[in-house]
């Protein structure tokens, strides 16, 4: 039976997406390859990012269909400011454009929007659009869709450490209480489970400062496919590959 349409709920597919199946609860994605896709099509880099948004739409829909709980998308890193100003401005306008078009559909699909990263440096219009979407979708309890925007894992850990120091020896935290679980509460991802599956498209095999703490026990899935060419079926292939993995968390 094809798993292409998990909403097709006859008996043979009834268990897909249910708790007894091996669907990753949290999937994180490094969406790489937009620039190369554009170049290969004789287009400017921004055209690749625009096409990348279309892939986001497909992947979010598939994640909803499959019963994935959380999807974290590396949309703009703390290092991406090094790109030409016009490209930076273009990428940072995409969340507003995406939400402007797709928010009603996301609401209808019970999606809850979240963001991780230092929002203070983003253009005001982008920040407002994201905050509006977070507020509108706050009570949805379906897929949690996290946009990592101006996100860098080292920056996240440093600001977590600053907050830890500020709380130490107050009623909030003592040195004896500080363990992995407590530290995790100081990260942007405090309210999210750690990713079960990391997908990176575009052929590179590195983490690029993405969720370094949170990916400690995550399964990785790398694909040569450039993000704009990545399809819902490719996403399903990754989910199914995850389903075959045996996770041991350092045990036997
Ligand atoms: C990396 O590809 C991609 C980015 C830095 C931008 C990612 C943004 C999107 C896919 C748009 C999604 C946004 C929303 C809000 C839905 P690259 O440019 O580094 O590609 P290259 O390695 O081929 O140059």
Describe this structure in words.
With 252 residues, the protein is α/β, with parallel strands linked by helices. It has a single domain (23-152, 195-243), classed as Undecaprenyl pyrophosphate synthetase. It has 7 helices and 6 strands, in the order βααβαβαβααββα. The protein has helices spanning 34-40, 45-66, 85-108, 124-137, 153-167, 180-184, 232-244, and strands at 26-30, 70-77, 112-116, 144-151, 197-200, 219-222. It has a 6-stranded parallel β-sheet, sandwiched between helices. Strand 3 (112-116), helix 4 and strand 4 form a beta-alpha-beta unit. Helix 1 packs across helix 2. The protein is globular, with a radius of gyration of 19 Å. The chain starts with 25 loop residues before the first strand and ends in an 8-residue tail after the last helix. The chain binds farnesyl diphosphate (FPP). Farnesyl diphosphate (FPP) binds next to helix 1, helix 2 and helix 3. The site of farnesyl diphosphate has 18 residues, from helix 1, helix 2 and helix 3.
């Amino acid at each position: 039976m094809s798993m292409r349409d998990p909403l097709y709920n006859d008996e043979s597919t009834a268990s897909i997406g249910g708790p007894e199946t091996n669907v990753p609860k949290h999937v994180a994605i490094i969406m790489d390859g937009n620039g190369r896709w554009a170049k290969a099509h004789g287009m400017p880099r921004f055209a690749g990012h625009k096409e990348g948004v279309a892939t986001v739409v497909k992947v979010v829909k598939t994640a909803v269909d499959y019963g994935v709980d959380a999807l974290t998308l590396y949309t703009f890193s703390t290092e991406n400011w090094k790109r030409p100003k016009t490209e930076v401005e273009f990428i940072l306008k995409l969340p507003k454009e995406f939400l402007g078009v797709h928010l009603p559909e996301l609401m209808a699909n019970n999606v809850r929007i979240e963001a991780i990263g230092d929002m203070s440096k983003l253009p005001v219009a982008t920040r407002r659009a994201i905050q509006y979407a977070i507020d509108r979708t706050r009570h949805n309890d379906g897929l949690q869709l996290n946009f990592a925007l101006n996100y860098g894992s080292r920056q996240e850990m440093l600001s977590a450490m600053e907050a830890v120091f500020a709380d130490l020896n107050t009623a909030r935290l003592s040195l004896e209480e500080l363990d992995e679980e407590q530290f995790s509460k100081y990260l942007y991802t405090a309210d999210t489970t750690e990713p079960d599956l990391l997908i990176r498209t575009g052929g590179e095999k590195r983490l690029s400062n993405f969720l370094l703490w949170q990916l400690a026990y995550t399964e990785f899935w790398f694909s040569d496919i450039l993000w704009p060419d990545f399809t819902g079926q490719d996403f399903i292939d990754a989910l199914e590959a995850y389903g075959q993995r045996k996770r041991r968390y350092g045990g036997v």
